[in-house]
Specification:
This protein is of the alpha/beta class. Helix 2 crosses helix 3. The relative contact order is 0.11.
Length: about 260
C-alpha cells in the first residue's frame, strides 16, 4: 500500500480507502463489515469513511460495532464522519454551530471513538455564515474531538471564503475536500481546485472513483437485480447512471430479461 500526506498536513493516508455509503447498514451487517474492514486493514488501508447521512446514522453504528470488536489500536487507523443531513427538523440539518456540534457528538457515540480524525462539511450551507461553521469546527479541534476538518462538494470560491474567515479570525482552516472524481467528473479537481492546491495546500479524499460502478462495466448489459441502483430510495442514483450512460430511459429489470 502507498500512503500520501493529506494536503500539507503530516497525516499519512492510504491511497485506497474503504467507504460505507449505501452498503453499511443497508446491505452489510456488522459481521460482514468486520470481514470487509479486516481485509482492507490487512492490505494496508488505514482510512475508513462514513457520514451521519449514510442510512440515517445506521452506517456509523455498524462501523462502530465492527471497530469495537476488531480492537485495532486507535493510532493505527483513520475514521471520518460528515455533517449536513442529520434529520428532518431545522436544527438537525445544515452547518450551524449547533448542528455541527451535535452531529460530532452523535458520530462519536455511533462510531464508539473518542475523536474523529476527519470531519467533513458534507455540502455547503447557504443559510449559515461561513465564519460560524469555521468557528464551530475550530472549537471541536480545540476540544480534541476532531483532528482535521474539511469540506465535500464545495466550490473553490466557498473553500477560499472558509480560508479567508479562518485567517481573519485566527481559526483552523479546512485541510481537505472530498469531491466526486472519476472519468466522468474531472473539471472540479483538475480545473477549479488547481489554485487551491498551490495556495492552501488543499488535500483531497475523493468519492465515487468508479462512478458508482458504471466504470467497471457491470451495467453494460443492463441492471443486475441485486444492484445498489435497484435499492428503494436510490432511484436518484439510477437516474444519475442513466445520465452517465447516455440513455434517456434505462430499463428497470435485470439483464437476463433484456
Amino acid at each position: 500500500m502507498q500512503y500520501r500526506r493529506l494536503g500539507k498536513s503530516g497525516l499519512q493516508v492510504s491511497e485506497l480507502s474503504l467507504g460505507s455509503w449505501v452498503t453499511f447498514g443497508k446491505q452489510v451487517d456488522t459481521g460482514d463489515a468486520k470481514t470487509l474492514m479486516s481485509a482492507a486493514y490487512d492490505a494496508g488501508v488505514n482510512f475508513f469513511d462514513n457520514a451521519e447521512g449514510y442510512e440515517s446514522g445506521a452506517s456509523e453504528v455498524v462501523m462502530g460495532k465492527a471497530l469495537k470488536d476488531l480492537k485495532w489500536g486507535r493510532d493505527s487507523y483513520i475514521v471520518s464522519s460528515k455533517v449536513f443531513w442529520g434529520g428532518q427538523k431545522p436544527t438537525q440539518r445544515g452547518l450551524s454551530r449547533k448542528h455541527v456540534t451535535d452531529a460530532c457528538h452523535a458520530a462519536l457515540r455511533r462510531l464508539q471513538v473518542d475523536y474523529l480524525d476527519l470531519y467533513f462539511c458534507h455540502r455547503p450551507d447557504v443559510d449559515t455564515p461561513i465564519e460560524e461553521t469555521v468557528r464551530a469546527m475550530h472549537d471541536l479541534i480545540q476540544q480534541g474531538k476532531v483532528l482535521y476538518w474539511g469540506t465535500s462538494e464545495w466550490s473553490a470560491q466557498k473553500i477560499t471564503e472558509a480560508h479567508a474567515a479562518a485567517r481573519e479570525w485566527h481559526l483552523t482552516p479546512p485541510t481537505m475536500e472530498q469531491p466526486q472524481y472519476n472519468l466522468f467528473e474531472r473539471a472540479k479537481v483538475e480545473g477549479d481546485y488547481l489554485p487551491l492546491f498551490d495556495t492552501f495546500g488543499l488535500g483531497t479524499t475523493i468519492w465515487s472513483p468508479l462512478a458508482s460502478g458504471i466504470l467497471t462495466g457491470k451495467y453494460n448489459d443492463g441492471i443486475p437485480a441485486d444492484s445498489r441502483v435497484m435499492l428503494p430510495g436510490y432511484e436518484w442514483l439510477r437516474d444519475e447512471l442513466n445520465r452517465l450512460r447516455g440513455r434517456p430511459v434505462w430499463p428497470r429489470w435485470p439483464s437476463s430479461q433484456l
